């Protein structure tokens, strides 16, 4: 395999993976229920990646109009291919999720709001929500009495807090919490187990930046395996006050 650029190495690792982060289809069903998202809603999947959640949203709300946005062209192309069977009621576009216009009945954002900041992102999206609309997002969360292994896993995300800290950031944006639950275990296995298999497949011919990307991903999986019952996202459904 010829040597790749760091960006190409990243995309090679994530090619053929179902997800670009932790999550499960049941999470979306729960969020749609808590948000009381109507059958004919207009929904945005912000930071959609290759479209795993976009597909689930389209299935969960077969009469909804769904838009999905990501900044990475490779993921946008993959999401368009995956959502093609749903026709023109699902639109995927390349762009900045900070610039949503709406109006949306629900903005879904799986593991990507931290790029904007919880408070900052929610404030930006307030004008993109329809009356009665809600935002559902997942955010890294420290569980009570985290071990050294759990803190080591999140060492590169200094903004991490416990769930009370996330609620405070939601309130600072002028929102209230409609519901919350933790994503632990299965949601992370759905991400890391396929990734480990992908690493094993690529490893024999990996050199340069690709080898580095595989090493970094392997180290991340090892850190997760050191404390799988403590590594969590808080899945929050929130709405403007």
Structure, explained:
There is one protein chain. 41% of the residues lie in helices and 23% in strands. With 241 residues, it is of the alpha/beta class. The chain has one domain: Vaccinia Virus protein VP39 (Rossmann fold, 3-Layer(aba) Sandwich), CATH 3.40.50. A seven-stranded mixed beta sheet has the order 3-2-1-4-5-7-6, sandwiched between helices. Helix 1 packs across helix 9, helix 2 crosses helix 3 and helix 8 runs antiparallel to helix 9. It is globular. The mean pLDDT is 95.
How does the major sheet shape up?
Answer: 7 strands, mixed
Average the pLDDT over all residues and give the rounded result.
Answer: 95
CATH class term:
Alpha Beta
- Estimate nothing, just give the exact number of structural domains: 1
Number of helices: 9
Strand content: 15-25%
| Helicity level | 40-55%
Low-confidence stretches: none
Total strand segments: 7
Large-scale geometry: globular
Q: What's the Cα radius of gyration?
A: 18 Å
Span from first to last CA?
54 Å
CATH topology: the name is: Rossmann fold
CATH architecture: 3-Layer(aba) Sandwich
Q: Structural class given helices, strands, pairing?
A: alpha/beta
Entry keywords:
241 residues; alpha/beta; Rossmann fold; seven-stranded mixed sheet; 9 helices; 7 strands; 41% helix; globular
Please describe the topology of this protein:
Blueprint: H1 6-14, H2 25-34, E1 42-46, H3 52-60, E2 65-70, H4 73-83, E3 90-94, E4 104-109, H5 118-125, E5 129-142, H6 148-153, H7 163-172, E6 175-183, H8 186-202, H9 208-225, E7 231-240
Parallel strand pairs: 1-2, 1-4, 2-3, 4-5
Antiparallel strand pairs: 5-7, 6-7
Helix pairs in contact: 1-9, 2-3, 8-9
């Amino acid at each position: 395999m010829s040597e790749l650029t760091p960006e190409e190495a990243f995309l090679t690792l994530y090619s053929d993976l179902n997800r670009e982060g932790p999550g499960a289809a049941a999470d979306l069903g729960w969020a749609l229920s808590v948000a009381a998202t109507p059958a004919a809603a207009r929904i945005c999947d912000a930071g959609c990646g290759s479209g795993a959640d976009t597909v689930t949203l389209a299935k969960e709300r077969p009469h909804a109009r769904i838009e999905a946005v990501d900044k990475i062209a490779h993921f946008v192309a993959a999401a368009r291919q995956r959502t093609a069977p749903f026709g023109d009621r699902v639109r995927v576009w390349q762009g900045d999720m900070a610039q949503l216009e709406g109006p949306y009945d629900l903005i879904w954002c799986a593991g990507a709001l931290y790029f904007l900041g919880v408070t900052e992102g929610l404030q930006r999206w307030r004008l993109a929500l329809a009356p009665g609309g809600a935002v559902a997002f997942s955010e890294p969360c420290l569980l009570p009495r985290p071990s050294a292994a759990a803190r080591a896993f999140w060492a590169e995300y200094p903004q991490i807090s416990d769930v009370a800290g996330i609620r405070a950031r939601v309130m600072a944006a002028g929102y209230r919490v409609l519901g919350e639950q933790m994503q632990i275990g299965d949601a992370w296995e759905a991400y890391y187990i396929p990734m480990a298999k992908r690493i094993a497949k690529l490893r024999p011919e990996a050199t340069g930046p690709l080898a580095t990307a595989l090493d970094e991903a392997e180290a991340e999986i090892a850190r997760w395996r050191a404390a799988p019952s403590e590594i969590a996202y808080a899945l929050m459904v929130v709405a403007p006050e």
